[in-house]
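Review this today:
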Amino acid sequence: MNSEHHDLLSKREAAVLKHLQPPPLEIDQRRAERLPIKLPIYYIIQGSHDSVSAQTTTLNMSGGGVEFLIPRMVSPMTVCRLTVTLPKQPIPLVFLGHVSWCRQGRGKHKHQYEVGVVFSTPDSCDEPTFACYCHFIAAQLLTKYLT
C-alpha cells in the first residue's frame, strides 16, 4: 500500500470534518445524476471505535459523491477519506466526506454493503482537486448526452 494511504484520518482532516455540518435531511440526496463509472478507489471510513479501509471499484459516481461496496455496515454521517484514481491522471484525488447511507448489497453483492458517500464542501486548499473531479464528471455527462 502506498504511504499516502493511512489507516486513520489525519488530524487536519478530522478537524475539518468535525466542523462541517451535514446537509439538512429534507434535501433531495439524488439531485446529481449518477453515472455508472467504474474506477479504482481507496477508502478509509472512520467509525467512533474502529475504521474500515480497503481498495475497491466504484459502482457509480456523481458530482456530489460516489457509491461503492464495503465488507460491513457503517452508520450514516460516519466520516471518511477517499482516494480516487481518474483515467489519464497520474496523481490520485483525495476527498473528505461522510456516509450518506449504507445498505446490504443486492444480487451478487448480497454479502457486502453498498455505501453512498457525499463529498464535503472543499476548503480553499482542496479546490483544485474538486475542480479536477468536476471536469471529469462534466466530460462524462457530455459524452453520455452528445454521443
Remarks:
- Residues 1-7, 21-28 have pLDDT under 50 and may be disordered.
- The first helix runs from residue 11 to 19.
- The radius of gyration is 15 Å.
- The chain has one domain: 11-146.
